Amino acid sequence: MNCGIVIIPTYNEIENIESIIRAVFSLHKPFHVLIVDDNSPDKTAEKVKELQKEFPESLFIEQREKKSGLGTAYVHGFKWALQRSYEYIFEMDADFSHNPNDLEKLYAVCHFDTADLAIGSRYVTGVNVVNWPLSRVLLSYFASVYVRKITGMKIMDATAGFICYRRQVLESINLDKIKFIGYAFQIEMKYRVFAKKFNIQEVPVIFTDRTKGQSKMSGAIIKEAVFGVLSLRIKKFFNTL
After folding, report:
1. Are 64 and 30 in contact (CB under 8 A)?
2. How far is CA 220 from CA 71, 179, 183, 216, in A?
3. CA 117 to CA 235: how far, in whole Å?
4. Are strands 207-208 and 31-37 parallel, antiparallel or unpaired?
5. Taking the CB of residue 199, how many other CB atoms lie within 10 A of it?
6. Fewer CB atoms near the end CB (10 Å): N or C, the chain?
7. Is residue 4 a contact partner of residue 164, using CB atoms and an 8 Å limit?
8. Do 20 and 48 touch, CB atoms closer than 8 A?
């Protein structure tokens, strides 16, 4: 199966879900979509099931019992995809902050170039963020500076959540050991890939803040990222990563 699978975690994304699914399926390059829904009260899952009647061979849904965090949703999706024969596995948000058109760019860097992990990067060519307040831009940008200093990774956008993995990368990682759930999950995954010396490439994209629905950002997620980076570096130092 040469097409990629785009994993989209959802919690209360009824305002965006149909549009984002149709946007992915309208691309020239065919992709499959897996929605991992955390029992959204707004009936996001019901809308996806309705759309499955139109896209029975390419749209899939996994429903979880409760809201359990972004990281665990992606790990659930990764395991689902690895049980099938997908060669390229993507992370993407439901809220159009990631432009679905850029999926083809990430795919090309992994399929036609030498990347094992392609990152849709907000900062590799400057600051490409639309509609974020300056405080959040600075928080995100300097979080990546902090990550580079602590970990030694050269990645400009360490907290990015728009990703393409080659299958072999995810197969090499013990997904049951993934600890973090928010921003720190994105950092941890990149760091584990970096530690295994896979080829990581950043692809410039423009990130546009959501216009519909509610952000899932919280102080606890930021705190997890700050202290999580230190714990990852310590684990690698002691070869316990």
Report:
1. no
2. 14, 15, 10, 11
3. 22
4. unpaired
5. 15
6. N
7. yes
8. no
Give the DSSP letter string of 52-88. HTTSTTTEEEEE-SS---HHHHHHHHHHHHHTTT-SE
Burial 46-66 (b: 16+ CB within 10 A, else e): ebbeebbeebeebbbbbebee
The first and second tokens of residue 112, run together, are 């036609």
pTM above 0.70, yes or no: yes
Q: Are 105 and 197 in contact (CB under 8 A)?
A: no
Tokens of 182: 């928010």
175 touches 79 (CB < 8 A): yes
Q: Can you tell me which residue has the tokens 């060669």?
A: 87
Q: How far apart are the first and last CA of the chain?
A: 32
Express each pLDDT in 43-94 by its tens digit: 999 999 999 999 999 999 999 998 888 999 999 999 999 999 999 999 999 9
State the pLDDT confidence band at 130, using cuts at 50, 70 and 90. Answer: confident
The whole-angstrom separation of Cα 109 and Cα 91 is: 15
Radius of gyration of the chain (CA): 17
Q: In the block, which residue shows the tokens 């990852």?
A: 232
> If 0-12 CB within 10 Å is exposed, 13-18 middle and 19+ buried, where does residue 128 land?
middle
CA–CA distance, 227 with 78 (Å, rounded to integer): 25
The first and second tokens of residue 91, run together, are: 């992370």
Over the chain, what is the mean pLDDT? 89
